[in-house]
Amino acid sequence: MNAATNTFCVNCGTRLGSFVPAAPIVPPSGPPPAAPPPYVPYPTPYPYYAPFPRRATFSDMLSGLFDVWTKNFLPFFAVYLALGAATGALGAIVSYAIFGTVILGGGFAGLPATSVPAVDLGLILLSAIATFAITAILTSFVVGAMTEYAIRRYRGEPMTLEHALRRGLQRFLSILGANVLLNLIIFGLVILPALLILVALFAGLSGASALAIVCGGLVAFVVVGVLAIFLYVSLALYAPAIMMENASAVGGLSRSWQMTRGHRWSLFGAILVTGILVFVITLAISIPLGLIGSAGGPIVAAFVSVLSSALISAFVGSWTVILVAVAYDLLVRHPTPYFGAAPPYMPGPAVAPPLGAAQAGPPPPSAAPPPGSPPGP
User: Fold this and answer.
1) Residue 57's pLDDT band (boundaries 50, 70, 90)?
2) Are 315 and 77 spatial neighbours (Cβ–Cβ below 8 Å)?
3) Per-residue pLDDT averaged across 147-155, rounded?
4) Is 190 part of a structural domain of the chain?
5) The domain containing residue 103 runs over which residues?
6) What is the DSSP letter of 50?
7) What is the pTM of this model?
8) 52: in domain
9) Is the pLDDT higher at 257 or at 361?
10) How far apart are CA 23 and CA 3, in angstroms?
11) Distances (CA, A) of 238 to 31, 174, 245, 303, 327
12) Domain total of the chain
């Protein structure tokens, strides 16, 4: 759709309205003019009207986050309310199925300690794995859908929530794979020094040896923690790369590493501030509801837990997704020498070269040169 005052189409550049062909140009007599230098168009089909942001800074990312969230509050609120309710209900059901009898009869009603039933550790482990798998699938589906939705809305492009959810369903396997790979990397880095400390504490070593291992583990934990944060920031843009460029799981992580080069401090600052705000709002919602739930019975506590999870997810669950989407769009349209050509902004015809950019060579002489003329080149 174009405005009534538009002379050219904002998508393909076609002239709108009536078009009067120009009169043919008659070349002047005499030697042909020198051909202009060849026209080199932009290497990607980025439309000429697409704005290129001048900056991709910390403040730009945060302002873009809240701009997209406030202008599209209802879609994000509805989707993440449903996600929070689903994951909260799943966790409450699993917890009640495993620990419900312990909470009801385990010494809280004056019963002897021998009446507390034994908890099957295998059941706990199996339930935890199932809960993690279902939560990861639901989260990957929603993250993929709302990432593309946030990018399209930040660019001002029309996109329905139904279309976004369909796109998330199409690409959720790649999002899930990249999410699992990233979490395995971060978890593997953090767990190694923790295991070293646990070995020193429970292996029965002497005082000096145990102290040396614990100190070494703490130093390693700090170093590995910094490395884990660096990797997380560098690979945080995998979801936009997968959704907007149809990259694979590994390709999305690789693309994120490439794009964030030179902008990691800005992205780290934006993620840190967003995380602090999310933490504060989470406490503001969960603490009052937790006090209300603790005053009731197990059913009331479970209901309040699901309600708390749903409200927290609805209000702040989408912030990191929107932040990453805005950062991706700022970086992909920010001309820097650190990565190659930007991916296609949207499909469209290539820009035609201007008139006269592809001239043929000078025509051959119409007659033989007169005798005695100097030889040609």
Assistant:
1) confident
2) yes
3) 93
4) yes
5) 58-108+118-332
6) -
7) 0.67
8) no
9) 257
10) 29
11) 58, 10, 10, 35, 11
12) 1
